[in-house]
Fold:
Amino acid sequence: MARIKGDRTKLVSAGIKTDSLRTTVPSSIVRQMKLNAGDQVEWQIESLNPGKIKVSIVRLERK
Structure:
């Protein structure tokens, strides 16, 4: 499988009383997917092999 170069972001805690983490969506992905503040995205996770996953982000249609 060819390696795809990607942007790198850092995960930070979303708050004191949660296990959730936050990261920034890189501007190159924002532009490519035509994302805007308030848009909803769906995260799809696929296990490839130990220690590697594939994450797909799907922009949901606005209602």
About this structure: The two ends are 37 Å apart (CA to CA). The chain has a mean pLDDT of 86. The helical segments are 27-33. The chain is about 10% helix and 35% strand.
